[in-house]
Amino acid sequence: MGETIKVTSQTKVSMRTGRKQTILNMVSSFISQLLSLGISFFLTPYIVSKLGAAAYGFFGLSNNIIGYTALLTVALNSMSGRFIAVEYHKGEYVEANRYLSSTVLANCCMAIFIVLVLGIITLFLEQILNIPQDIVLDVKFLFTLLFVNSAFGLCTGVFGMPMFIKNRYDISNTMGVCMNIFRVTLIIIAYGFFPAHLWYIGAVGLIVSIIHTAWCYYFYCKMVPEFAIRLSFFQARKVWEMVREGAWNLLSQFSSILNQGLELLLANLFIGAYYMGILSITKSLPFVILGIFAGLGCNFHPECVKYYAEGNMDSLRNLLIKGIRILGALAVIPCAGVFVLGDLFYSLWMPGQNTNLLYGLSVITMAWILTTLPTQTLWYIFTLTKTVKKSSIVLVRYGIAFVVTVIIAMLLIEDDLTKLYFVVSVQSILGIIRFMTFLPSYSSKVLGLPRYTFLKLLVGVIYTCAIVCGIGFLLKYFFIHEYSWFTLVIGALVITLVSLGVSSLTILTKTDRDFILTRILKIKKIRISA
């Protein structure tokens, strides 16, 4: 009557649970992110020196355009893991395989469609974008490789799902570390021994993706031998079920693209390739920092779910407040560092580029980054309380306001440099408004808390950062008289110590300091009795 799945081998890699595995996942994730930051730190100036800022900007732009295609699949893929994992843990392997096979086949069809559409766009790319004549073929080849890589990942992404099902993110993070090392090795070989071309980045990315997929497939076979991808398992109603549940994630992704994914495209269309490249460089560091804090914010989610499920709103409120205070104290460090030492950093990191321009754009960007880093625990509230619809609609409105304002201004402003500053400034102003008004007030509302519960904490973070910057600029004026990596490192250490000292007085409480030591740094308190 029903279909059965015959398991021919024992699962070699078991599921792990508990605090130790959570710590292992966090540590491996931190190492992976730290390595990615290091690679970006060294490779960005290396590639810019080989290709120039304008050419480098097309790498960021191509990745953004690939992100636009995610709108076609995010509703399905944002929920597929949840449906497959639930059925798997219930022991309903046939049902899990129906969801799995339906996901894979739907993604393969969508991948073919994406490649065809983007392939046609690539043929006429120089007529759509502002591309310097000498790198037109390079840019087209880069786009082609990245599009193929994206389609390949869409078809094979399910092979990484067992790490989620078995709670073995340490394996995927370890693979990420190894693949990053392999990637940087190939890039150095390509640019060190062959004439420089932009498409090397895309070629290396595709090679790394193929090897990474093969590695994931090995663990896929070992960890979930119960899984089977078959055409007979495909059910259109399964696809529709997952898409329906993930519909609001589509709107959320769309709002993210409007607010943070269109600035490079707008810069290219209305300003030019060079300034797009400069903008791409200045976005690299802030968005790496944002990614790290997003990962830190996720550490609070399990307890949020627990307290909300228990109806313990007091504990949930206290946890969220604690999260904002801790992330806020940590956020002061990189933000104050960029505000005070950004000019020194860019003069050393990007010699030959316009340091003042890079520094000015970074300061404007970090202004809104400062308001979003402490709030990384709050976004999950909308998922927790099933209020994603309202938040997504509001974010879409902000995104539309950004795009419309920029387009109108680009048609009225003549000076290219003024246009560039306007794009970054509007994005930053709207970001500050979004994170200082809607997010804290609406998250308070859905939890039944006073309107200004979270807002006053964010004001405290900004106040603290202002104090640290004041101290930092004074120390810089009196003690930093030459620009070198040594003075930059010493300056960064001083900013870190000042930030922690001031934050411990203005933001953190005693319980927060204990939480950082025992829960984040895993340092056990030692009591010494008299």
Characterization of the model:
The chain is mostly helical and 530 residues long. The chain has a domain at 12-245. It has helices at residues 19-51, 53-69, 74-89, 93-123, 125-128, 136-156, 161-165, 169-193, 200-223, 236-245, 247-260, 263-270, 273-298, 301-310, 313-349, 355-372, 380-384, 388-412, 416-446, 455-479, 485-506, 510-520. The longest helix is centred in the middle third of the chain and has 37 residues, at 313-349.
Number of helices: 22
Average predicted local confidence, pLDDT: 83
Along the chain, the helix and strand elements come as: HHHHHHHHHHHHHHHHHHHHHH
Characterize the biggest β-sheet. Answer: none
Helix/strand/pairing category: mainly alpha
Q: List low-pLDDT spans.
A: 6-19, 525-530
Radius of gyration: 24 Å
Short précis:
By secondary structure, the chain is mainly α. Helix content is 79%, strand content 0%. The protein is globular, with a radius of gyration of 24 Å.
Features:
530 residues, 79% helix, mainly alpha
How are the elements arranged and paired?
Layout: H1 19-51, H2 53-69, H3 74-89, H4 93-123, H5 125-128, H6 136-156, H7 161-165, H8 169-193, H9 200-223, H10 236-245, H11 247-260, H12 263-270, H13 273-298, H14 301-310, H15 313-349, H16 355-372, H17 380-384, H18 388-412, H19 416-446, H20 455-479, H21 485-506, H22 510-520
Helix pairs in contact: 1-2, 1-8, 1-13, 2-6, 2-13, 3-4, 3-10, 3-11, 4-6, 6-9, 8-9, 11-18, 12-13, 12-19, 13-15, 13-16, 14-15, 15-16, 15-20, 15-21, 16-19, 18-19, 20-21
